[in-house]
Structures are given as C-alpha cells and as structure tokens.
Write a structure and sequence with these properties.
The complex is a heterodimer. Chain A is of the alpha+beta class. Helices cover 21% and strands 25% of the residues of chain A. Chain A has a five-stranded mixed β-sheet. In chain A, strands 1, 2, 4 and 7 form a four-stranded antiparallel β-sheet that branches. Chain A has a four-stranded antiparallel β-sheet with strand order 15-12-19-20, with no helix packed on it. In chain A, a hairpin with a 5-residue loop joins β10 and β11. By secondary structure, chain B is of the alpha+beta class. Chain B has four helices and 14 strands. In chain B, the strands form three sheets. In chain B, strands 1-4-6-7-8-12-13-14 form an eight-stranded antiparallel barrel. In chain B, strands 2-3 form a two-stranded antiparallel ribbon. In chain B, a hairpin with a 5-residue loop joins β10 and β11. The longest helix of chain B has 46 residues. The radius of gyration of chain B is 29 Å and the shape is elongated. Chain B starts with a helix and ends with a strand. The chains are: A alpha+beta, B alpha+beta.
Chain lengths: 442, 275
C-alpha cells in the first residue's frame, strides 16, 4: 500500500520537473488513485458535540425532549445556528478544492440538483471558507442559511438576511451536505447532517379580552383547540398612563352585551351589572376561570371600536423584537393571565395596558399576535368598601375590626378551656375508669 | 341412544342434587347469619370498648347573613357584590351558597342512663366567597376578585340521645347542640388583605370577628347495622364504636352589634365517628 504522506512529503521536497521519467507512470497512477482513496475517508462531522447556538455564538437555551437538530421558528427569528465540529482527514488529497456546504430536501450531491439552473433544488448553506487543515475546528451553520431557499429555483431565492426566510411556514426536513467540489462536481464522499424543520407557528389565539383591575389587568383568550404542539401562551404588553393615552385609545370602550351600567348610591354599588354565573358557586373560591367569564370584557378582538391601539404590537404579525413579554401562561388550555407589572414596574392607577397574545409550541416557535385588547388599572370597590359605605355609619363597620369584642372572645375561649379541664378531670374519676375497665363504658 | 339417555339421566340427577344442595346451603347460611347477628348483639352489649369522643366531618352550603345587620338599614352590600341587586338596590338574586367544610370534636363525658351522652364540643370550619370586585366608577365587574374568607367556630354542649339504638336497636340518634359561636373573617384581593382608613386616619386591614350563639339539632344514622362484623372488627381493632351519617340544622347567629354578621342558618351534613 502506498504511504501517501511520505510520498507527498517527498514530492514537496522535489520539484516535479526534477522527477525522473521512470516515476511518471507511478505518479500518474498516484494522482489517479488518491481521490478514490479519499472518497473512502470522507469529511467527518461530530454530531454528538454539535451545539445549537445563539446569534452571538453563546449556547442556545436547552429544549427538553426535543432533538437539537429540530429547527423552530424561534431559532430562525433569533438568527440561531449550529456550531458543528468538522474534521478534514483528507484535506491534502484535494489540493485545489474547497469544502462546500449545500442544503436541500433532495440529494445535493447530484449536480442536477445543485448546478443546473433549470433543475436546481439545493442551495449553498455556508458562504464562508473552511480552513484547509485537518481540524479546522467548528463551523457555524446559520439556521437562516439552512432555510434560505426552500423555494427550489435560484430565481426565487429569498436570501438568508431576509426575515421572509423565517416567515415562510415550512414543515419539511433539510439535509446539509459537506463535500469537496471543483465548482461543478462533487469530489470524494460527502458527509451529511439532517435537520427537521418546523417553522409553522401556532395560530393566534382568538377572542382576546382584558378587564380592568386595581393595580392589575386580567387578560383572557380562547385556547387553541386541537393543536397538540401548543405549549403555552405569551402575553405582550404596552403600557401608557392616562396622560399618554392617545385620542384613539381614550375612546370609551363599549360595554359587553350582558353588562349594564351600575349605580353608586352613597358609596354602595347597587347594581352589580351582571347576573350570570358565580365564580364560587361550587364553593371554589379560587375558581377564577368562571369568574373571568363573569366579567364584562373590554375587548372585541381587535375591533377598532374597542379603542385599543399599540405602538409596535401588530395583530397577525409575529411579536416584534422590542415587544415586552409581560406574562407567560404554561399549558395548552390555559386561558387567562393577570398582569401586575410590565417591564418590572408595578401597574399604577390610571395605567392603560394594551395586550396581544401569541401561542408558542413545544419547539419554541411563537405564533402571530392575536387581536389587541386593553384595560386599565383602576380603582375598584371591594366588598368591605361597599359594606362600610352601606352601614348607617362608618363606625358600625369599623367596630368589627377594632377588637371591640376581644374581651368577649377571650372569655369564651377561657370558658371553653376551663370546661375542658373540668371534664378531663371528671374523665379520670376512679369510678369512670373502673367502669371502663369492666367493659360497661359506653 | 341408550348411552345418551343414561348420560342425560345422570346429568339431570346431578342438577337436582346441585339445586337441592344450594337450597340447603342457602338455608344454612341464613341460619348462620341469624345466629351470628344474635351472637353479635349479645357480644356487643358486653364487649363494646369505652366510648368517650365523637369526631364530625362537616359539610354545608353556607350564605353568611351579612346583609341582615340593622346598621345597614336594609341595604344589601353582600348581595350587591356576590349576588345581584336591582337598580333600586333590592337584592333580586341572593348569592349562591358557598361550600363550608369543618370538623367538630366532642367529649362525651356524661353518660345519662336511658338517655344518651352529654358533653362539650368544639368546631372549626372554613369557607371562602369570591367574585370580581366592582369598578368604583361604573359598578361593572372588574378583572380583580374580592374575596371573603370566614372561619366559623363554636363551642357547645352536645346531647346525643342514643337510647333508641341501645335499647331498641333503632339506629337513629337524635341530638342537639347549644353554645357560643365566633366567626373570624377577612376581606382580601389578590394583592392581600383589603386596607381601609379609619375615621382617625389610621390604616387598618379589613378583618375581624363576630360573636354570638350556636344552636343545632339533627340526627345520626348509625351504620353498624349494615356490616355488623365490620363494625365489631373496627371497635376491636382501633376502638371506633360507631360510624354514622348525620344531618342537622345549624343556627349560627353571630349577631354581635356593629360586627360583620358572618353567621348562617343552614343544613349541615357529614360523617360522625364515635370512639
């Protein structure tokens, strides 16, 4: 067997012109055979140490139970990539060739899929140069490059820098091929790495609604049904205080169909406005889902008449990069969230919050935003406020909280304690004990 | 043919014997149950373990009588927040009953011959009422709940008349309770206990208590008769004398003047264990 390295070394020390004629035939055979041998050694990829990385090269968040070679919409939106260790054991066998990386859903080793304009179905997934050394280290394949041209013709190439790469909803597999090429033909054996792609985002939740609260805004929506990949919902917020409210958003919101204006009578709310349902009809005081349906909603799902407006949240579009995530609800059937703070600042009275909801799937893909809903942090009348207002004098209600009855309560407790002690003493009476021992106790 | 007839006769005879055997076995079993019951009743009178305590697991629909306070002069704030009132302020739909659960522990210290047991009992219960608070400016429900939690307590004398069961085998035990009641309460929102300003300007939490009386009457159905053997075993093994279902009507009148009336008159159901 020819020792290729030693032969190459000897070739390197001598000029080809100095080679004696008797070596021409062996050299010709050598150059004819080496590529064939190289094809058996191929380019190698270390998939086990490959990493999914952020745009800045840092490690991307781990995803439980998901193959790391699964490409999500979020990966594309955030310009993530894959850092892949590559080794070129036969780099010296292809002295004038570069390693190329192509991607496609078909066999990209086939020239027809790669270089013939009329039949091209693959695209270059790596524009950089790979060092021609045995261990060039890690190369980073960008997700957007991998998804750059699933439209199959060069004439419709979209380009990796365009957001359109991500917004095209695809659910196919893409394979990246690594091989030496002379510009037209594949030389040697190709290594390949398969990626599964799911950039189809969940649908936008319907019927978003927001209701006013005291230092809080409650948001609800209709969960997406039949979408097994939905993992939860993101609520994005914009806050404006009263002074910042635009004329549009200051429009008085229409009342829900089943709501009527209440009256305030001497501090007592004498008309609650609704009569349907009861949050705790079954004794479940924490049943907020029923309660939510019991409230007058302030949104009509993006209807301009609901008076909701936002600066950057656009219904039907993906959440923009500057959108503030103010709540996350985990679970496919969760349908509500409460906003108490936005960007780390607690809501104040008068703050008006506009929200839009987007579903996210288990691959991390975040769907488009729902219609807008909005509500304000306002003053509410709690039960005790209503009670104090209704009492003939404020003092009547106050008495119950001042400890006026402490003496009586203490007397009761002391009395009961004394009674227990007395009774315990009676229980230990010898006659009782004897009666018990005789088995005639009751 | 002959062989088939013989087999048929043998099968018929076997079937008759089987039926006859089953009938005899059934009769024997009935006799056995009767004898066993007799033996159980005989043994029960002699071998019952001492009985000193009763523990009740209590469940009830509960609507506090908050709006009955005379200080309210007919206004119904509880109904306004947790039920429905008309535009004139009249309660048109009373708040739905809330689920109350609790425990009562009795000491059956006095055994009155041919009557039953008498002793003190204490009880602790809990319930919560919750609904969206009303927007101050409009009266519409807001996105924030306003809730009341109530802890009804009482200490009462409990008389259980078990002579019917002991002397005549009727598994019914009427009983009555009378004593003092105490109800702690708290009004809270997701942000915590509601705060309010007193006339002197100090801030105070919306919580307190009310004091009053407690009366109840009802009956227990002792379940021993369903499974006498199991009842016997239960007593022998862990000293539980009786397990009963009960129903009672409770009058918890926490009508302390000026206080939030968190008592209620309601039916209570549950399970009693005497041991």
């Amino acid at each position: 067997m020819v020792d290729r390295k030693r032969l190459c070394a000897s070739l390197g020390r001598s000029s080809l012109l100095q080679v004696p004629p008797r070596f021409f035939l062996p050299l010709a055979l050598f150059f004819a055979l080496v590529p064939a041998r190289a094809s058996a050694q191929s380019i190698t990829l270390n998939q086990t140490t490959a990493k999914r990385v952020n745009a800045d090269g840092s490690n991307a968040p781990a995803r439980s139970g998901i193959n790391q070679f699964q490409i999500s919409r979020e990966d594309c939106d955030l310009d993530r990539g894959y850092s892949i260790p590559i080794t070129l054991p036969d780099v010296s066998a292809f002295p004038l060739l570069n390693v190329e990386i192509w991607a496609g859903a078909v066999d990209c080793k086939d020239n027809n899929n790669r270089t013939v304009a009329t039949t091209q179905q693959c695209w270059k997934a790596f524009g950089g140069n790979i060092d021609r050394v045995t261990n060039p280290g890690n190369i980073t394949l960008k997700v957007r490059d991998l998804l750059a041209n699933d439209r199959t013709k060069q004439s419709t190439y979209v380009g990796p820098s365009s957001i359109d790469v991500c917004s095209r909803n695809t659910f196919t597999n893409v394979t990246a091929y690594f091989f030496y090429s002379d510009g037209a033909n594949v030389k040697g054996a190709a290594a390949q790495l398969e990626f599964s792609v799911n950039t189809v985002p969940p649908a936008a939740p319907a019927e978003p609604a927001a209701v006013d609260g005291d230092g809080a805004v409650s948001v609800s929506w209709k969960p997406i049904s039949g979408a097994s990949t939905v993992q939860g919902y993101n609520v994005y917020c914009e806050v404006s205080s009263d002074s910042e409210v635009s004329p549009t958003s200051a429009t008085i919101r229409p009342l829900a169909a089943d709501a009527t204006l209440g009256e305030v009578d001497g501090g007592v709310v004498s008309d609650s406005g609704t009569s349907s349902g009861d949050a705790a009809a079954n004794g479940d005081a924490s049943s907020s889902s029923d309660a939510a349906s019991d409230r007058a909603t302030s949104s009509s799902g993006g209807d301009p008449t609901n008076g909701c407006s936002a600066r950057i949240l656009v219904p039907g579009q993906p959440p923009p990069s500057g959108a503030v995530l103010c709540a996350q609800a985990n679970g496919p059937q969760v349908s509500q969230a409460t906003i108490r703070e936005v960007n780390g600042r607690a809501l104040k009275l008068g703050d008006r919050v506009t929200v839009a909801i987007a579903a996210r799937d288990r691959f991390g893909s975040v769907g488009n935003l729902s219609n807008l809903a909005c509500a304000s942090s306002i003053e509410v009348t709690d039960f005790f406020d209503a009670y104090r207002g209704a009492a003939s004098s404020g003092g009547a209600a106050n008495c119950s909280t001042t400890g006026k009855g402490n003496g009586a309560a203490s007397a009761v407790i002391v009395g009961l304690s004394a009674l227990c002690i007395v009774l315990r003493g009676r229980r230990k009476h010898p006659s009782q004990v004897a009666a018990g021992q005789k088995g005639v106790g009751r | 043919m002959i062989r088939r007839s013989s087999l048929g006769r043998i099968a018929s005879a076997a079937a008759l014997l089987c039926v006859a055997g089953m009938s005899a076995d059934a009769r024997a079993q009935q006799t056995s149950i009767y004898e066993r019951d007799t033996a159980y009743l005989r043994a029960k009178r002699i071998q019952d373990s001492p009985q000193w305590f009763a523990l009740e697991l209590r469940f009830a629909p509960y609507v506090p009588k908050i709006d009955s306070a005379p200080e309210l002069a007919g206004k119904t704030p509880f109904c306004a927040v947790y039920g429905t009132v008309s535009s004139r302020g009249v309660c048109t739909e009373t708040p739905n009953p809330r689920f109350m659960f609790g425990l009562e522990f009795d000491v059956q210290v006095l055994k009155i011959p041919y009557v039953g047991t008498l002793g003190p009992g204490v009880s602790f219960s809990y319930l919560s009422v919750s609904r969206p608070a009303l927007v101050s400016a409009t009266g519409q429900p807001s996105g924030q709940d306003t809730s009341i939690e109530i802890f009804p307590l009482y200490g009462s004398a409990v008389l259980r008349v078990d002579v019917l069961h002991k002397q005549f085998g009727v598994p019914i035990v009427p009983y009555a309770k009378a004593g003092l009641g105490l109800g702690f309460w708290r009004n809270y929102s997701p942000n915590g206990t509601i705060k309010f300003n007193r006339p002197d300007g100090t801030e105070q939490g919306a919580k307190g208590y009310s004091f009053g009386t407690h009366f109840a009457f009802g009956g227990m159905l002792r379940l021993d008769f369903l499974e006498p053997d199991s009842a016997r075993t239960l007593d022998d093994a862990i000293g539980i004398n009786h397990v009963s279902l009960f129903g009672e009507y409770m009058l918890l009148n926490l009508n302390q003047s000026g206080a939030l009336r968190v008592g209620a008159n309601t039916a209570v159901f549950g399970v009693t264990t005497e041991f």
